């Protein structure tokens, strides 16, 4: 669940320009503990890892890292020594030392000069580690907020207004619909055109699509093209949060309303006031919660848990789900009245396998992004690699593609990414898919002409699918005239999907 995180509403959105999560660096020479920390923190933070001080400094130079976790025992120098060194160059980075009991003597000796925020003692538990890093990120946020406030006070109102306008322009550019990468003629063109139209009006929107297809990206683009763009964009993953927690997160609570409610809390609806709230996985919410959500949307006000007062909120709702919500309505598991409230306009983002023409365009962009993030140069994808990427069905959609490229880049040294750097899953998928297509399409025995026809049909089908039924391009690639191509497609009964 991401709440906006700065005083400046626009900067909140910009802070998440493709970098929604705070950057955390884990420095540890032990691969296993590095991995364990990465796994624990991965959901909430962008985790980078470095095996030693030198690699860590490289990462700090390239990324806006907010928190560094460093093991006390490393070859060459201790964690405390490392923190002393980086404190001079990166004073704002919050430093967390990971150490065992036996290290205490060394640590105490150098603690003040290293400016350590907190310790994590080994063996750590995931909850403790997460809690510590969350507080470190909060500390970093407050520190930055204060610095910015001081600068603003010194700069005066005119300079402040100029900076605000510049930030807004940057946000608009960062989330322009053009930044949603796609090939010319992609099915996403229509989706983006429609989204851009509805962005101007204060209508609710429902974005449908499988996980990882880019629903949140589209929602952000809508927000940034809307008159609310200077307001906050707040993301809530309704599927990941239990019912009771979801209610307090969204609507807030009064101090003492339940055990653990030690102070009043402002809900995310209020935090999104004047902006947009993105309710991801709305189809996963319970019937009881749907009733409460409907009331808020109908009345435009929230009642914090344990409070007798309601508070007005002015929020545009964009919801998303990977479920077939109309079917859920028919089956009675999703309220019909809520459905009509949130589905002012429905937009459907097709899965990546239904837009194979987009795969390479997106992969190239993601490769450039990941290469910049990892500080590992890359000049593109080689032909074999493209073929494998094209042949894989991408059940996890663009998110899976991004993860795959990050993994392949980290594990290979080549500038142009070769197919062999890709996971076995993809390479097998490729051979498996090719083999099964071949096996299914090709008769095992029979006249030579029949078998050649089967091969021809298979090549035509693959080409048309890859080029998204662009007949001019396909004819040029296959060395046929458009008429010749059309005749062949007819002969083999190949038609573009409706
Ligand atoms: N067309 C695209 N161009 C560039 N990046 C994309 C595109 N589509 C998706 N991405 C990237 O893929 C990742 C997943 O996208 P996003 O989070 O928007 O998907 P989602 O459908 O909201 O997923 P989920 O339903 O699991 O929350 C993000 O890093 C996003 O920036």
TrEMBL record:
This is Hydrogenase transcriptional regulator HupR. One of its GO terms (molecular function) is sequence-specific DNA binding. Residues 23-137 form the Response regulatory domain. InterPro entries: AAA+_ATPase, AAA_lid_NorR, CheY-like_superfamily, Homeodomain-like_sf, HTH_Fis, P-loop_NTPase, Sig_transdc_resp-reg_receiver, Sigma_54_int. The gene is hupR. The modification 4-aspartylphosphate is found at residue 71. The keyword Endoplasmic reticulum does not apply. It comes from the Bacteria. It comes from Rubrivivax gelatinosus (strain NBRC 100245 / IL144).
């Amino acid at each position: 669940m991401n709440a906006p995180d700065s005083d400046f509403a626009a900067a909140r959105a910009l802070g998440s320009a493709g970098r929604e999560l705070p950057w955390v660096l884990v420095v540890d020479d032990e691969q296993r503990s590095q991995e364990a920390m990465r796994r624990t923190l991965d959901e909430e933070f962008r985790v980078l890892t470095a095996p030693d001080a030198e690699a860590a400094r490289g990462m700090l130079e390239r990324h806006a890292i907010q928190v560094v976790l460093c093991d006390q025992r490393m070859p060459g120098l201790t964690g405390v020594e490392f923190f002393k060194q980086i404190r001079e160059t990166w004073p704002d980075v919050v430093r967390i030392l990971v150490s065992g009991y036996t290290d205490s003597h060394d640590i105490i000796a150098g603690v003040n000069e290293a400016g350590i925020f907190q310790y994590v003692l080994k063996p750590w538990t995931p909850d403790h580690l997460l809690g510590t890093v969350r507080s470190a990120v909060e500390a970093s946020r407050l520190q930055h907020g204060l610095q910015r406030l001081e600068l603003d006070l010194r700069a005066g109102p005119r300079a402040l207004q100029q900076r605000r306008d510049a930030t807004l322009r940057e946000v608009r550019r960062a989330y322009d619909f053009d930044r949603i990468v796609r090939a010319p003629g992609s099915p996403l063109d229509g989706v983006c055109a429609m989204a851009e139209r509805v962005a101007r009006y204060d209508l609710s929107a429902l974005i449908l699509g499988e996980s990882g297809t880019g629903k949140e990206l589209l929602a952000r683009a809508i927000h940034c093209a809307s008159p609310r763009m200077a307001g906050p964009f707040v993301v809530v993953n309704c599927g990941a949060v239990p019912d009771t927690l979801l209610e307090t997160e969204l609507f807030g609570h009064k101090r003492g309303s339940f055990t653990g409610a030690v102070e009043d809390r402002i809900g995310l609806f209020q935090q999104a006031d004047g902006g947009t709230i993105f309710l991801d996985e709305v189809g996963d919410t319970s019937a009881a919660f749907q009733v409460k959500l409907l009331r808020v949307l109908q009345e435009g006000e929230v009642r914090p848990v344990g409070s007798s007062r309601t508070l007005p909120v002015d929020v545009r709702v964009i919801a998303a789900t990977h479920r077939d919500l109309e079917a859920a309505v028919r089956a009675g598991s999703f309220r019909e009245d809520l459905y009509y409230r949130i589905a002012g306009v429905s937009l459907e983002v097709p899965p990546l396998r239904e837009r194979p023409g987009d795969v390479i365009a997106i992969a190239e962009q993601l490769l450039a992004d990941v290469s910049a993030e990892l500080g590992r140069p890359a000049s593109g994808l080689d032909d074999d690699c493209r073929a494998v990427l094209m042949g894989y069905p991408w059940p996890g959609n663009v998110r899976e593609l991004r993860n795959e490229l990050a993994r392949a880049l980290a594990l290979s040294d080549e500038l142009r990414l070769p197919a062999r750097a890709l996971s076995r899953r993809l390479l097998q998928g490729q051979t498996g898919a090719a083999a099964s297509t071949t096996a299914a399409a090709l008769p095992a025995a029979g006249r030579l002409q029949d078998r050649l026809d089967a091969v021809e049909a298979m090549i035509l089908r693959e080409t048309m699918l890859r080029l998204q039924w662009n007949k001019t391009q396909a004819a040029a690639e296959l060395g046929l005239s458009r008429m010749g191509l059309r005749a062949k497609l007819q002969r083999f009964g190949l038609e573009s999907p409706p």
